[in-house]
């Protein structure tokens, strides 16, 4: 059986509990017997009694541990999910559920965190898989790839930060903890502004792009007035590297900020995505910002919600990313 | 034999100096590699030199089909939601599929002319009413779309004969990335009309 790091922690906690319990009972029995009698015969009886008790406790607490490790029937990639976004309409993300039993129905049960009010949120769950995934099984596990979408049900809700989500999976409540708590603000999102109009904004990439300098994408803009591009930044987790640009099809140049773009010029800026926390196994969603100044000194930005997905797109029906994701989680 | 080799090396050097200089100053093409090839056999055999230049600042937009695009929606003063309700996929892409009107014969194009990615494989996304992108009311008016894209090289091959005389050239596209998805905007038309190939 393959165990996750949390299961290993559970096992070591169980062993510690066993030892503490055994210690406690042995001490109590010795004290009791010592008070009554101190003959060798009685001591021998006590030793026998201790052995019996130790055996009984070992069996019973081992049973307890077995019950806990039954969570290995169900694994998720929540330790590799990184979410820090701004979007006025909703926060949404994908979650991979690996289960020994084929999952038929998933219902939302609740969010848990220090400052979360479930009553103020509407949560929907979409099964975001495909036929090829539905019929696939690896190491005895079926995969259910779901999308969780959380919307505020009033204008007063400004953010949504949580550490755990509880799902009712075929009648069993599964509490899924995120190593990095989910952070979201219900404002902003895809902010597109007039002086530097967007033309092309890539925003949904495979996670394999992360930390791969050969995979760089092009963001394209049209300046409707003279602007100075000040900075390209992400809200979290990712930073741009190897930034180059062209203006009106000029030779590609290494970017040194600020970049001046005149009215009517087309700017194409390309870069790769680097991270010190995320990698090709991670599901990442955050915002990208292009900060710029107009000639009059007004500051603007274009922003978009960006997603890196470890499973989609599936290339040539090749499900090896699912296998490597599972192997990585199960380590 | 040695003299021939020295002569060929000399020719390549001269052609490099003649050919690379103007192209480097010309837009975003940069020199990538050169190769030699022959056509015909026996007394019809001809030797050629080819110089390859690449421009990485291009991409392909797959649209015109609900399976790869939401289609263009006009946004006026209110918010719109680009919504893709079906799973979608694109087939494998090669220099041939991306450059249907280009005749590659007589250029001896090597398989790795595009670099590390010579062809993409087919790609699919599973979607159950989940691919939506919201364009806020404050965004500029115009046509918005959400599409599958891949990055490509624009490749130019210039062909010279064994005397160093220019013969001809071809320009075609070769893939340089796996697919991803982009929001695309055009203020005036339901199309994307800058540096890209519409598929």
What is the C-alpha radius of gyration of chain B, as a whole number of Å? 22 Å
Measured as a percent range, the helix fraction of chain A is 10-25%
| Oligomeric state of the chains present here | heterodimer
Biggest beta-sheet profile of chain B: 7 strands, mixed
Please count the beta strands of chain A (DSSP E, at least 2 residues each): 19
Distance between the termini of chain A: 11 Å
Look up the CATH topology of the largest domain in chain A.
Immunoglobulin-like
Element string of chain A (H = helix, E = strand): HHEEEEEHEEEEEEEEEEEEEEH
Q: In total, how many domains does the architecture of chain A comprise?
A: 3
Strand content of chain B: 35-45%
Class per helix and strand makeup of chain A: alpha+beta
Radius of gyration of chain A: 28 Å
- Strand count, sense and closure of the main sheet of chain A? 13 strands, mixed
Unreliably modeled segments of chain A: 1-26, 55-70
Please tally the β strands of chain B and state the result: 11
Give the averaged pLDDT of chain B, no decimals.
76
Tell me the name of the CATH class of the largest domain in chain A: Mainly Beta
Q: Rough shape of chain B?
A: elongated
Furnish the topology, listing elements before pairings.
The complex is a heterodimer of chains A (331) and B (199).
Chain A: H1 5-36, H2 40-69, E1 74-76, E2 81-86, E3 91-99, E4 106-112, E5 121-127, H3 131-134, E6 137-138, E7 141-152, E8 162-169, E9 172-185, E10 196-206, E11 217-223, E12 227-234, E13 238-247, E14 253-254, E15 259-261, E16 266-275, E17 283-294, E18 299-309, E19 314-315, H4 320-330
Parallel strand pairs in A: 2-9, 2-17, 10-18
Antiparallel strand pairs in A: 1-3, 3-7, 4-8, 5-7, 6-7, 8-9, 10-11, 11-16, 12-15, 12-17, 13-14, 13-16, 17-18
Chain B: H1 2-24, E1 30-39, E2 46-62, E3 73-75, E4 80-84, E5 88-90, H2 95-98, E6 123-125, E7 131-135, E8 142-161, E9 166-175, E10 180-186, E11 196-198
Parallel strand pairs in B: 2-11
Antiparallel strand pairs in B: 1-2, 2-8, 3-8, 4-7, 5-6, 8-9, 8-10
């Amino acid at each position: 059986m393959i165990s996750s790091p949390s299961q290993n922690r559970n096992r070591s906690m169980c062993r510690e509990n066993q030892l503490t319990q055994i210690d406690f009972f042995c001490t109590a029995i010795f004290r009791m017997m010592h008070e009554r009698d101190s003959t060798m015969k009685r001591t021998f009886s006590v030793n026998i009694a201790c052995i019996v008790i130790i055996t009984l406790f070992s069996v019973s607490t081992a049973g307890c541990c077995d019950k806990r490790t039954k969570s290995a029937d169900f694994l998720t990639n929540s330790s590799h999910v990184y979410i820090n976004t701004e979007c006025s309409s909703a926060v949404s993300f994908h979650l991979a559920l690996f289960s020994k039993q084929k999952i038929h129905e998933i219902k939302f049960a609740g969010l848990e965190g220090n400052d979360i009010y479930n009553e103020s949120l509407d949560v929907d769950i979409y099964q975001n898989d495909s036929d090829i995934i539905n019929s696939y099984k690896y190491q005895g596990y079926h995969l259910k790839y779901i999308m969780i979408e959380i919307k505020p049900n009033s204008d007063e809700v400004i953010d949504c930060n949580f550490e755990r989500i509880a799902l009712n999976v075929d009648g069993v409540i599964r509490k899924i903890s995120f190593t990095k708590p989910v952070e979201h603000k219900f404002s902003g999102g895809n902010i597109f502004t007039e002086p530097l109009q967007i033309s092309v904004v890539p925003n949904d990439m495979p996670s394999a792009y992360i930390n791969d300098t050969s995979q760089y994408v092009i963001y394209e803009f049209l300046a409707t007035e003279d602007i100075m591009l000040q900075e390209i930044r992400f809200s979290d987790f990712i930073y741009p590297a190897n930034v180059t640009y062209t203006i009106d099809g000029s030779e590609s140049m290494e970017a040194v900020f600020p970049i001046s773009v005149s009215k009517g010029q087309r700017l194409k800026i390309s870069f790769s995505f680097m991270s010190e926390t995320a990698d090709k196994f991670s599901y990442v969603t955050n915002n990208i910002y292009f900060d710029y100044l107009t000639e009059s000194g007004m500051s603007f930005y274009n922003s978009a919600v960006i997603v890196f997905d470890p499973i989609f797109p599936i290339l040539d029906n090749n499900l090896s990313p699912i296998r490597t994701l599972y192997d990585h989680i199960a380590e | 034999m040695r003299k021939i080799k020295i002569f060929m090396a000399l020719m390549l050097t001269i052609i490099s100096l003649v050919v690379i200089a103007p192209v480097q100053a010309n837009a975003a093409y940069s020199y990538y590699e050169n190769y030699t090839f022959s056509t015909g056999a026996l007394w019809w055999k001809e030797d050629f030199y080819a110089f390859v230049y690449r421009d990485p600042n291009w991409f392909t937009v797959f649209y015109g089909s609900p399976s790869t695009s939401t289609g263009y929606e006009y946004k006026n003063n209110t918010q719109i939601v680009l919504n893709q309700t079906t799973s979608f996929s694109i087939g494998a892409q090669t220099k041939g599929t991306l450059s249907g009107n280009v005749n590659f014969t007589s250029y001896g194009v090597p398989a790795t002319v595009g670099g590390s990615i010579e062809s993409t494989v087919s790609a699919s996304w599973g979607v159950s009413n989940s691919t939506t992108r919201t364009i806020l009311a404050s965004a500029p008016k115009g046509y918005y779309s959400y599409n599958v894209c891949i990055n490509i090289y624009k490749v130019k091959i210039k062909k010279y004969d064994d005397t160093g005389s220019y013969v001809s050239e071809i320009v075609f596209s070769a893939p340089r990335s796996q697919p991803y998805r982009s929001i695309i905007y055009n203020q005036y038309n339901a199309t994307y009309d800058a540096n890209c190939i519409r598929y």
